[in-house]
Amino acid sequence: MKGLILSGGKGTRLRPLTYTSAKQLIPIANKPILHYGIEFMKDAGIKDIGIIVGDTRAEIMEQVGDGSMWGVNIEFIHQPEPLGLAHAVLTAEKYIGDDTFTMYLGDNLLRDGIAGIVKEYHERNPDCMILLTPVKNPSQFGVAELKEDGSVKKLVEKPAEPKSNLALVGVYLFNSLIFEAARKIKPSLRGELEITDAIQQLLDDGRDVHSAIVEGWWKDTGKLDDMLEANRLVLDTLEKNIEGNVDSASKVEGRVIIGPNSRIINSSIRGPVIIGRNVVIENAFIGPYTSIQDKCEISNCELEHSIILDESKIRDVPGRLSDCLIGRQVVVEKASIKPQATRLMLGDSSWVSLG
User: Fold this and answer.
1) Rounded-to-10 torsion of CA 109, 115, 119, 124
2) Of 99, 211, 230, 340, which one's alpha carbon is 20 to 30 angstroms from that of 244?
3) Handedness of CA 149, 150, 153, 159 (dihedral sign)
4) Where are the domains of the chain?
């Protein structure tokens, strides 16, 4: 079995951050989202992985390399335009060949990875297997209607009146019949070849499409709130590990990770929190569910439930910053005028002054 990770797309829901960075490289608990997908593939025994890339391919290729850091083989497949998930499948046809494959959306996170679903697929050997989860708002997802034996009766993309609350999670397992099905379908109203239509075509052709219900949490990290929630869920699984220096005037409570050469000076850190390498935190409070990447400086302020990327500086900010996603090399500092809000989502190389 091969793996296919989709890392194209423009990340419009996370702009302005994604004007300058691939959304799949935004960190969750200080690790790029894409890395989780690669690790899930490896843990499931998949060693040959194709990654679909688009406009941000240079950055992704530089970050990921040939896969040797994970002990897998990675090839990059260019999709010139993001014309739908089924179009991405067709783009990868030459790479996949006659092999079975697992397709994984690169901005998704699952608590338990994909090893279990891959094992079940090999045991059942259907033409397609999809992963489902109950949701409160099924009309915003592709929705599956099931038969009593767990096989799939029908799929509908974002139905106005859903027949079930089972939404498709961004993990799909296929054999080569999916290529024929994808070639039969037509673009949807939004001009894309939908993977739900391709799987429905398999059903119409009498193929065996099975489903499994995801156990544990699942997150599509395409929006700010979902990314912060995913960060919270992952931080809850980490164990305390302090490699940096914490002075005697500081207090560290709970599950806190502090990377090498980081310094905590006269500050309070309340976990779960992860702090990268070469970070300086002085006269500050860092509250739960915060991730701070390498080479950041945070002083004379309070911060919680946020994600701060590399080399950013936050200093002398009144009040408490919360629910923030702050890009690389950002400066947030006190100004003479009091700010009207402290909920921030900033792109790389930004400069914000707050009073």
Assistant:
1) 0
2) 230
3) positive
4) 2-219, 238-354
- Architecture of domain 2-219 in this structure: Alpha-Beta Complex (3.90)
Tokens read off for 189:
């109203």
Report which DSSP code applies to 205: T
Q: Which residue has the higher pLDDT, 157 or 307?
A: 307
Alpha carbons 215 and 209: distance in angstroms, whole number: 19
Does the pLDDT value for residue 22 go beyond 80?
Answer: no
Domain at 238-354: CATH architecture: 3 Solenoid (2.160)
Percentage of residues of the chain with pLDDT beyond 90: 61
State how far the Cα of 249 lies from the Cα of 4, in Å rounded to an integer.
Answer: 49
State the pairing for strand pair 2-7/101-105: parallel
- Do β-strands 142-146 and 263-265 pair in parallel, antiparallel, or remain unpaired? unpaired
More confident residue, 10 or 164: 164
Amino acid identity, residue 311? E
- Put simply, whether the predicted model's pTM sits higher than 0.85 gets the answer yes
Side-chain half-sphere of 229: how many Cα atoms within 13 Å?
14
Confirm if 349 and 329 have CB atoms less than 8 A apart: yes
Q: Which amino acid is at 298?
A: I
Long-range residue pairs from 297-306, CB within 8 A, at least 24 positions apart, any chain? 305/228, 305/232, 306/228
Backbone φ, ψ for residue 216 (5° rounding): 85, 180
The span from the CA of 328 to the CA of 308, in Å, is 8
